[in-house]
Design brief:
The protein is α/β, with parallel strands linked by helices. The chain contains 6 helices and 11 strands. The chain has a 7-stranded mixed β-sheet with strand order 3-2-1-4-9-6-10, with helices on both faces. Strands 5-11-7-8 form a 4-stranded mixed β-sheet. A hairpin with a 5-residue loop joins strand 7 and strand 8. The termini are far apart. The model has no long low-confidence stretch (mean pLDDT about 95).
């Protein structure tokens, strides 16, 4: 079984799209989706799919503006996950192409920590983009892990650094970064702001997101 972990809260528009992207995944195996919602008002979770188990955790205290509860929320999810699990991070405000989970499962056969590098970011309000050259690590939204890498991620969450992805990739021994466009980091979505960089990107020449994700770009047109 593949386990997905999604911290969320105070982002109903982003969450609705996250459910949509997961509903279209081509991976046909069983999935356990642990959703950690620490918003004061619960997200409307309506996701249903055969062979998927959805579990919602509501940790307290609830998030307040200025808080960084990411590590706490991951700890809440990982407390329910066994050491033999295969875990993929699904961030609620990012885009996932239909083949993402199948790619995750395939790549986890080759390494204990896997992820898509060369990050592509798109700002939903301004149409600005950024392409990074990260070829030795992946963003958390495009990472998955098992075995020793899962144990390493548990320790990182216990320590609680502001950003969890770079330290994890730095210390993992069995790792693989691949270049693909199955995950797009979406910035500037309505609701609770993200803690990573890129949420203030601007441009005089908005990018046509259809070049990256085709007709799915229409889902983000409402936020411009």
């Amino acid at each position: 079984m593949l386990t997905l972990v999604t911290p969320t809260g105070c982002r109903p528009a982003a969450w609705a799209l996250c459910e949509r992207w997961m509903a279209r995944q081509t991976y046909a195996g069983p999935v356990r989706w642990i959703v950690v919602d620490d918003g004061e008002q619960a997200q409307p979770v309506s996701f249903r799919r055969d062979d998927w188990q959805v579990e919602v955790i509501r940790p307290q205290p609830f998030w307040r503006p200025g808080d960084n509860t990411q590590a706490r929320n991951f700890r809440s999810a990982l407390a329910r996950v066994g050491d033999d699990a295969r875990v993929a991070v699904i961030e609620d405000d990012d885009y996932y192409a239909p083949g993402w989970l199948q790619r995750v499962v395939d790549e986890l056969e080759t390494a204990e920590l896997i992820g898509q590098g060369w990050n592509r970011y798109y700002h939903a309000k301004t149409g600005a983009i950024r392409i990074n050259g990260n070829d030795t690590h992946a963003s958390l939204c495009a990472s998955a892990f098992r075995s020793d890498a899962l144990a390493l991620f548990r320790r990182q969450c216990d320590r609680g650094p502001r950003l969890l992805d770079v330290p994890m990739w730095k210390h993992a021994h069995s790792r693989r970064v691949f270049n693909d466009s199955l995950v797009i980091g979406i910035k500037g979505m309505p609701g609770r702001a993200g803690i990573a960089g890129g949420h203030e990107m601007t441009t005089d020449q908005p990018f046509d997101l259809r070049e990256w994700i085709g007709a799915d770009a229409e889902a983000y047109a409402q936020f411009r």
